[in-house]
Amino acid sequence: METRYVGKSVPRVDGLEKVTGRAVYSVDVNLPGMLHGAAARSPHAHARIVRIDTSRAERAPGVKAVVTGRDVPYTFGGMVKDQPFLALDRVRYVGEPVAAVAAETELQAREAARMIRVEYEELPAVFDPREALREDAPILHPGMADYWHAPIYQGIPGTNVVTVRKLSVGDVGRGFAEADEIFEDEFYIHPVAHTPLETHAAVAQYFSPKDEYTLWSATDRPYRLSRELAAALGIPVNQVRFISTHTGGGFGGKGAMVAEILAVALARFTRGRPVKVVCSREEELTASQTRHAAFMKLKTGMKKDGTFTARSAEIVWDNGAYCSLGPDVAWRGVLTIVGPYRIPHLELYSRLVYTNKEIAGAYRGFGTTQVTWACEAQMDIIAHKLKIDPLEIRMKNAYVDGDLYINGQNLQNVGLLETLKKTAREIGWGEPKPPARGSKFRGKGIASVIKPTATPTDSYCFIRVNHDGGVVILSGAPEVGGGQKTVLSQIAADTIGVPLASIVVPQSDTHYTPYDMAVASSRTTYHMGNAVRQAGEEVRRKILESAGRILETDPARLDLAEGKILDESGRELLSLPALMDKMFGGKGGSILGEGHHSPAGSPLLAAFPEPRRLRHFCSYPGNKTFYLYVVPKGGDVSADLETVLHAVPKFLDSKKED
């Protein structure tokens, strides 16, 4: 298909409003009667709350509400419901919010928050996840067994281990026995702050007669957060509305509720007045979220010719005080510590561990960044010891079409060998290094990475063509700075056959835009892009069918390009606005299209073209472990591994007496 916009460099559709200052970010939201919120935060890493005195803050100038955990005794979390809105009986990290204040100005709110007096009884703290695994370590969440968990994310009650995942392929003992050399190395990767230009900020408004909440926030996943907040409050999801603003940098960090929770807690007590919370830079760095730190042990068996025989890996993730998206980070990480390489025998062990530190959550790469550092560093260690070129050892073991990924997926269109060859050529691999320039040296390195996307997941969209030919894309995928609006507009323009300038993409609003899983995991162009394509095809078909009726000709003989109805010779017969006018008799009307895309059922996800055994280990409540053996029958698997795993806890619940 020849395209006019897709694959071309075009001006960003949101560029003008951004460079002229008209784009509204979360910090820009300003509503009538709006109050400002601030938090009183813990100075201790771990302590019991003995008493909170808010009396001075309540009398401070401009203060309209002061709340503590007793006023909002709720917990939230999309994977494990372990985090309170405001600390309840104890604090678990320095910076945890203990109380919050709403006042007429931000300065008044912050000054009043400093007036809150909290009496603490300090408790032993643990800051290293390896120490948190010890039997004598202080337990951060004694009630973890009672927390709600998503079915596939189970911890070990009575410990600090919140999620355990193990994967095994083949026979790792046999693989090591076949190795000529065995390499054992340990790696550590530190936490990283997202440090967006725009700190976490949100506005919340509460309508008490209907128990409804409206939030304005720069999140990348409004539907998931609306569901998470509704579950925390015990209300239907229709009573929580997220309106997305522009995002001043997210990098994964805006996918969790930080300022939103404080704004909601306060808005419940401000008689309908909206409350705005903007984190200071200090709060952004100490009380939002970070990338997970991780300790990794790799044991890898190799033949002298540089081919793998086996790998065992152990990962201990530092999750900080609460889960956030950590369980999924730990899962994605254990799936990718094998690298993009053929390794016949695997034993992988991942533990997510609570510590008395700032919460760790989603960050670009989502667990893959950390494990790739360990995997690729060891690849260079192995290459050096075996005296094999680092490029050669990667190419010798690289995935090619038809290889099986760790979950059994049949890999197609891999392109890794071609990429490595082109990269080596472009950087002059093997050529002498350039001479030093004073104290400056230039070196060369090469590394590979494999990263799964969040799939199979769903994206929906509506497209509306207005009576003047303008096109509106209603999508639940927010613009987070990566050009999402532009990409979707390009796809729609080419699919329908209209000018790019005729398309608008409003901000996501969970009351009006249809569902999308998230703008995350490099999924938007593929998932939402295909949904837009489907909706665009429906709209185009309806337009050409209407044109055929009006022009009394076969629609198959007509074309639509740049908003013009053309005949087979390319002659313009009618403009789209003129057609719409004729269709609706000048009274106005719309043409609607709907799209939904999910790769579920794709042959790429069907996996296992030949019999292969994969053992999956996961902890289960009661400190038990179950072993799931996936042994395909006849090479046909109707569901991917993760789908199967969602069903396992339900099956075990039904078999408890066994």
Please provide a written account of the structure:
The chain has 17 helices and 26 strands. It folds into three domains: 148 residues, 2-Layer Sandwich (Aldehyde Oxidoreductase, domain 4), CATH 3.30.365; 171 residues, Aldehyde Oxidoreductase, domain 3 (Alpha-Beta Complex), CATH 3.90.1170.50; 155 residues, Aldehyde oxidase/xanthine dehydrogenase, molybdopterin binding domain (Aldehyde Oxidoreductase, domain 4, 2-Layer Sandwich), CATH 3.30.365. The chain has a seven-stranded mixed β-sheet with strand order 3-7-1-14-11-12-13, with helices on both faces. A seven-stranded mixed β-sheet has the order 10-15-16-17-9-25-26. Helix content is 27%, strand content 24%. The longest helix has 28 residues. The termini are far apart. It has 658 residues and is an alpha+beta fold. Helix 9 packs parallel to helix 10, helix 13 packs parallel to helix 14 and helix 14 packs across helix 15.
Short key terms for the protein model shown above:
single chain, 658 residues, Aldehyde Oxidoreductase, domain 4, Aldehyde Oxidoreductase, domain 3, 3 domains, seven-stranded mixed beta sheet, 17 helices, flat
Which strand order spans the largest sheet, edge to edge or round the barrel?
A: 3-7-1-14-11-12-13
Q: Mean of the pLDDT scores? A: 92
Instruction: State the share of residues found in helices, binned by percent.
Output: 25-40%
Name the structural class.
alpha+beta
Number of helices: 17
CATH architecture of the largest domain: Alpha-Beta Complex
Largest sheet: 7 strands, mixed
Radius of gyration: 28 Å
Q: Please name the CATH topology of the largest domain.
A: Aldehyde Oxidoreductase, domain 3
Number of strands: 26
* Shape call: flat
**Percent in strands:** 15-25%
C-alpha end-to-end distance:
58 Å
**Uncertain residue segments:** 606-613, 617-658
What's the number of structural domains?
Answer: 3
The CATH superfamily of the largest domain appears as Aldehyde oxidase/xanthine dehydrogenase, a/b hammerhead
* CATH hierarchy, class of the largest domain: Alpha Beta
